[in-house]
From TrEMBL:
Transmembrane segments: none annotated. Pfam families: adh_short (PF00106). The lineage of its organism: Bacteria, Pseudomonadati, Pseudomonadota, Alphaproteobacteria, Hyphomicrobiales. Keywords: Oxidoreductase. InterPro entries: KR_dom, NAD(P)-bd_dom_sf, SDR_fam, SDR_oxidoreductase. Residues 7-199 form the Ketoreductase domain. One of its GO terms (molecular function) is oxidoreductase activity. This is Oxidoreductase. Belongs to the short-chain dehydrogenases/reductases (SDR) family. It comes from Mesorhizobium zhangyense. PANTHER family: SHORT CHAIN DEHYDROGENASE, SHORT-CHAIN DEHYDROGENASE_REDUCTASE FAMILY PROTEIN.
Amino acid sequence: MNKTNSGVALVTGASSGIGRATAKALQKAGFRVFGTSRRAAAESSDGITMLACDVTDDASVAKIVDDVLAEAGRIDLLVNNAGIGLFGGAEESSTAQAKSLFDVNVFGVFRMTNAVLPTMRRQGTGRIVNLSSVQGFIPAPYFALYASTKHAVEGYSESLDHELRPFGIRVVLVEPAYTRTSFEDNLARPDQLLGIYDAARAGMTVTVRKAMEKGDAPEVVAETVLKAATDPAPKRRYAAGKMARQVSFLRRFVPESAFDKSLRKQNGLPV
């Protein structure tokens, strides 16, 4: 693929935030971009073809891939961006709520990936970019279940990459820190609140809001996705933004006890 025809990209969760910025960055770089959203959106906007897809539904996922192939004939890049958040003490969520979270953030990635792999294998080439988070490799108090989904995506992605290299397919991770999107406003809340966590949860709410205000613009993450998608010698992980790079460095090189103390301090928890 040349610079003006970089291939066909499919981006999930592309109606707003990181997904929308990513779709635009890929389109600008020469990709023919298909974006998905849970609800029907404008058929085409800014050169991006939007289609409805529910990543928790096998039939919906199969249809979206079939529709893209019918129109474009191939899929060179899949960006698994669709996801939801959950904020609260881990004990405050039912098993059913945890399963719903994993169904989107983990099994949604699994469904989309499995759906495009036959095509990518036939092509003998393909790139899958999975949106993770710094919470995929550090502790995340009051985001324990969300962080668990990102840890799962990290393990899945790195393992899958080794399996798919013989077919010319690579799987890479993009790890943002706080990003200025509507993520905070759309966070799910626990379905069985416990008063014992009220004070700590309220404190963390303030901490998260302040961090989001200082977070990176979605375009910073989008440019990292573009790099991950086009890097001729892809790395396993791409930190998106200054904070993400700092956290990654500290996690690798700072002693565990010191990192633990710093994390609790940053989150307003007793040290």
